[in-house]
Amino acid sequence: MISGNELKIKLSDHFDYKRLVRFVTPTVFMLIVTSIYGIVDGFFVSNFIGKDAFAGVNLVMPMLMALGALGFMIGTGGSALISKTLGEGKKDKANTYFTTLLVVTVIGGIILTVIGFLALDPFVRLLGADESILKECMLYGQTVMICLTFYMLQNSFQSFLVVAEKPSMGLMISIVTGIMNIVLDFIFIYYFKWGIQGAALATTLSIIIGAIVPIVYFLRPNTSALKITKPHFEYKMLVKVCTNGSSEMVTNLSASFIGMLFNYQLLHFAGANGVAAYGVIMYVNIIFMSFFFGYSIGVTPVIGYNYGAQNKEELRSLLKKSLILTTYVSVFMCILSIVLAKPLGMLFVGYDQTLLDMTIHGMKVYALSFLVCGFNIFFTSLFTALNNGVISATLSVVRILVFQILMVFILPLFLGLDGIWLSVFVAEILAVVVGIVFVVMKNKTYHYLPERNEVVEES
Fold it and tell me: Which has more confidence, 267 or 456?
């Protein structure tokens, strides 16, 4: 049903609530399904290999996410620039940008793969991995590192398929590869008994397939807004994309860094159980955050297109609708996380009562952050879509590298373990205040807030 309607939706359309939700929904579900890779690994590893292996996966995951952040930067920064270029009516130039950015992603992926292999051992040792989990970290990390370039391409295509007005294709690819990952995890871990390396291999093969399919599609004649042509390296274009997408890269790098700090603090306050509990909370967090990130990825090209076309009325409408949708979903996510804390905890760590109790309590406290984080993610993507990478990156840095770091070290001094779980919520509140200030300050530049005579009118 989505695929049929998708053909009628163009970036140049007026987006009422129904059209907006229909357009971004495939991208939201695409991110949810993509997040299944690590979650399925975690389920099989925790239940069929053990909590030491589970802790090992959670220790090495932030590094893998950090290395793959280049793909998010190129995808989000590039999609904003490409959609703006399409809005200006320059389709050939947009296709050249698209192709060039794919080549840059591949080159960057190869370089980062080499760095990753060299840095993996000292990285996990730095985080405090002892001999009981060091081997698990190395087996999982080295295997998954093989697909790093494909992971970065997959991250880029999450944005580029939306610009190409083919978000449902991204969803279908994610569903197929997600199912593939589940099946391979069962075969490799449960049937073949390959342990943690089997989990890594299942994820690696799924990611490779998920990146190759879009490449084949764009290489062939297609009906989308984009196609692969001859690349042309322009220094100014690359700088613009990197600057514009830097906020998303900072977000992913910072989130990875925060994950390391959380693991460090949790090892100190709660040992391996704390790291395992945090792993479960992060799996839930990834799924719930997928809405906010998916919505932002889906709406960014629409905002970028209308910015390029100087359609101020549509910009105002998109901002208003986005804030209202984010409000409803934020409340729903918070309540759902609290309600599902026990059953989800049972699913991953039901075999250990102490660990289960810690996980349930931590998840309920952490759930408060869902009330606020969606607004911060949207504000960052809003300025990315408007090609203002400086503000977008500033919001990301302040939110994660300033507020979250401060809170994860300060609050535990007064609240102990609860201070770690609560730190994200407090940091998100501080960050949203900064975001609102920037949105109000830049209205004179972008005119996305309602005029006085529109405040009481329905868009």
Answer: 267
